[in-house]
Amino acid sequence: MDETLFMIKPDAVEKHRIGSILAEVERAGFEILDMRLVRLRPRDARLFYAVHEGKPFLEELVQFMSSGPVVPIRLRREKAVQALRDLIGATDPREARPGTIRALHAESKGRNAVHASDSPESARAEIEFFFGDGAARR
Ligand code: ADP
Ligand code: MG
């Protein structure tokens, strides 16, 4: 069994989609190991997305991700990282396969409802970010 980090973003929280998104995740066979509701400060949003430092959309992303509460969730399943990426669909909802979480809930490439780790390495780091020692101050 592998773990991955899933996060419901501020646009989906604002639209009261937490319950239906979690239902889709549980239906796909994921086990919820831990979960929080937290409002990120801009500096923590920037830290979380440090791999995107220098990208033209980073400021917009940091502003969006700190604009309201997010729900980070620690998930477990067989082949969790790839299975969750398949379940959420492409970054841009216009390119997301029908039935995926982003096809159903995302508004745009920026406001795209959810995040999922893209590799086992980033899953470890992102789980640590929200659930490890020191995460309590976020
Ligand atoms: P993913 O979330 O699918 O792994 P990326 O890691 O490429 O996608 O990007 C991280 C997040 O940054 C995206 O989910 C999206 O919210 C935002 N983003 C990416 N590209 C753009 C863009 N061109 N314009 C606005 N926001 C973007
Ligand atoms: Mg990514």
Automatic annotation (TrEMBL):
Binding site for ATP: 9, 57, 85, 91, 102, 112
Domain Nucleoside diphosphate kinase-like: 1-138
PROSITE patterns with a match to the protein in the record: NDPK (PS00469), NDPK_LIKE (PS51374)
GO molecular function terms attached to this record: ATP binding; metal ion binding; nucleoside diphosphate kinase activity
Active site as annotated: 115
Cofactor(s) required for function per UniProt: Mg(2+)
Family of the protein in this entry: Belongs to the NDK family.
Annotated PANTHER family: NUCLEOSIDE DIPHOSPHATE KINASE, NUCLEOSIDE DIPHOSPHATE KINASE DDB_G0292928-RELATED
Protein name, UniProt field: Nucleoside diphosphate kinase
Organism, scientific name: Eiseniibacteriota bacterium
